[in-house]
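Researcher: Structure prediction, please.
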Amino acid sequence: MSISIDKVTYAAGSTLIVNGVTITVETGKVLGLLGPNGSGKSSLLRLICRLRRVRSGVIRVDEDDISELSRASLAQRVALVEQQSSTDTQLTVRDVVQLGRTPHRGRLFSWAAEDDAAVNDALERVDMQGRENQLWQTLSGGERQRVHIARALAQRPSELLLDEPTNHLDIQHQLEILSLVSKLGMTCIIAMHDLNLAAMFCDSLAVLQKGEVVAGGTTEEVLTKELIGRVFGVRAHIERSSVHGRYSIQYAMG
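Model: Predicted structure follows.
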């Protein structure tokens, strides 16, 4: 397994945020991490990056316990794309993507051809190579998310974590961003709210409620009317296309 989370618990003060979570993600697959607000999705992503400290349990990347890796070593392997990021500094697209090379460069190391190659490749993979000199502030929301993903890809990670990457985007940009991520061929965990988009782009799903995993598996196994009603508090009508096999979920208040 590429990412293995084994009985992980995390608390903020006396409040239990993540409670005994066990999840595995196969190499090269996309896991959709679902759940209501406050269910622990963002906290779990930050635990994998070691931006939060695990109270108990073990998180492994491949066979390595992340607690035994240096921060630089972990950052070279795992990249996080957070929900929103803004700056008043006059940065170009290329400036932002170059920040992804930070884990690979110590204080005494100058910029190298390898760094340029990683940045160029990242820009190309998100189709922003012709916009590298454009100012960050002039980009649309969807374009900014592409640049965020390019920054993460410039780290040359083997695992990519995304926290609500389509939040505040219109449906066209939501589809573009998730299609881009699904085609990267990387191990990904995407925290998200939209069940239809999760069913469309994720290989497997895990549902959190109050910090615990209450369901995990394929879309067909997880997204049932019973689970949606119990976890999200809405009635759901689920259809599956006989042509492409995709799910369509419609909601009504309980």
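Model: The chain has one domain: 3-253.
Researcher: Thanks, that helps.
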